[in-house]
Write a structure and sequence with these properties.
The chain is of the alpha/beta class and 367 residues long. The chain has two domains: 23-262, Aspartate Aminotransferase, domain 2, CATH 3.40.640.10; 265-365, Alpha-Beta Complex (Aspartate Aminotransferase, domain 1), CATH 3.90.1150.10. It has nine helices and twelve strands. The protein has helices spanning 20-31, 48-65, 79-91, 106-116, 231-236, 246-263, 266-286, 312-324, 349-366; strands at 71-76, 99-103, 121-126, 150-153, 155-156, 161-162, 174-177, 194-198, 209-214, 292-293, 304-308, 339-342. The strands form three sheets. A seven-stranded mixed β-sheet has the order 1-9-8-7-4-2-3, with helices on both faces. A three-stranded antiparallel β-sheet has the order 10-11-12. A two-stranded antiparallel sheet has the order 5-6. The two termini are 41 Å apart. Bound molecules: 4'-deoxy-4'-aminopyridoxal-5'-phosphate (PMP).
Length: 367
């Protein structure tokens, strides 16, 4: 397949850029998966081959994340949004004490009303008064010992804020939406009771959401949940409860192999991601009379770099000129505007180097 150079300059917030070698295998698989001889779009989810795909993907994720044996790895539908509801339906229904939620940005805010539909919620900290430009320090946080669980978002995709530590108490189940930094770096994943992440940022296309859940979390789940929304039913069915998104799961498998074999695991992935974000933040800091970073320094995300220019008109010109130069996906989220460069796993350092050059030139033309 001839490389499409525009793919390599795709800074989209999600669905995001995927590695070229994965795209090549996907292209081939659309015609025929080599070991099956059929198109990936026409292989039964009940085939032995697909059961092996799910089993290998689970094993790859377990080994990349170094997960203990009492965790299950699930591949679900409904996006991260469905997890906003599935979680409280499992853990909050009928509870008198509130679950602790952090409100650190757009996406953690979206989880709140869904939880409130089901049971009591306490906002343990809110970044709203500060316009979601920073995250809390430990001194600002106090977590309830009797909360059914703590929920937070590790990386706020819209505002470009990322926690660089694990939050919460060890005696309260920790639940984390890692949609936009999943498998981007190593972590103490065994300190979480449940982690969820849709695929379409770092690990694949839209259509599948990975849930990593510790067995003990589900012991008191109600028996009245719809089967599709019951983690235990999904576990029993090995993620093939109904027709799963076969194509999306296969692409995630290819990305997991790429992470393992071409990148060399999560520590190596983190090194690359750190270097990419360091370069871009350095460019912002060196030009802070023109490019204004959104996030407080200590909370800067390695995945989403959000910034502003001196005025919205210049931001529009920047986005248009960038597009003409081959860069795509740089417009900030519709809720806050500005510019956002997303540096997901599949984006190469060379793309950031080109963006930084472009930013230099744009500044000299418009200062
Ligand atoms: N959580 C986070 C952190 C996100 O970035 C997004 C979407 N970008 C969502 C949840 C919602 O995900 P979905 O569209 O898969 O439901």
């Amino acid at each position: 397949m001839p490389n499409n150079p525009l793919n390599s300059l795709n800074f989209s917030g999600g669905p995001g850029v995927l590695p070229e070698s994965v795209l090549q295998q996907v292209q081939e698989a659309i015609r025929a998966v080599p070991e099956v001889g059929l198109s990936i779009l026409g292989i039964s989810h009940r085939s032995d081959w697909f059961a092996a795909v799910v089993a290998e993907l689970e094993a790859n994720i377990r080994s990349l994340m170094n997960l203990p044996a009492d965790y299950h790895v699930l591949f679900l539908q409904g996006g991260a949004t469905q997890q906003f509801s599935m979680l409280p339906m499992t853990l909050l229904a009928g509870q008198a004490t509130p679950a602790d939620y952090l409100h650190t940005g757009y996406w953690s805010g979206k989880a709140l009303p869904e939880a409130r539909r089901v049971g009591p919620v306490r906002i343990a900290w809110s970044g709203q008064p500060g316009g979601f430009r920073h995250l809390p320090d430990d001194a600002e946080l106090d977590f309830q010992a009797d909360a059914p669980y703590l929920h937070y978002v590790s990386n706020e995709t819209v505002e470009g804020l990322q926690f660089h530590r694990v939050l919460g108490r060890d005696d309260v189940p920790r639940i984390c939406d890692m949609s936009s930094d999943f498998l981007s770096a190593p972590g103490d994943f065994e300190r979480f009771s449940l982690i969820y992440a849709h695929a379409q940022k770092n690990i694949g296309p839209a259509g599948v959401t990975v849930v990593v859940v510790k067995d003990a979390l589900l012991k008191d789940a109600p028996d009245t949940l719809p089967g599709f929304l019951d983690y235990r039913a999904q576990i029993a069915a090995h993620s093939i409860y109904n027709t799963p998104p076969v194509f999306a799961i296969y692409v995630v498998l290819l990305v997991s192999r790429w992470l393992r074999d071409e990148i060399g695991g999560l520590a190596a992935m983190d090194q690359r991601n750190t270097e990419k974000s360091r370069l871009l933040y350095q460019a912002l800091d060196d030009n802070n009379d023109f490019y204004l970073g959104r996030a407080a320094g200590k909370d800067r995300s390695k995945m989403n770099v959000a910034f502003n220019l001196p005025n919205p008109e210049l931001e529009q010109e920047f986005i248009a000129a960038a597009l003409a130069a081959g860069f795509s996906g740089l417009a900030g989220h519709r809720s806050i505007g500005g510019i956002r460069a997303s540096l997901y796993n599949g984006l190469q350092l060379a793309a950031v180097e080109k963006l930084v050059d472009f930013m230099d030139q744009f500044k000299s033309r418009n200062r």
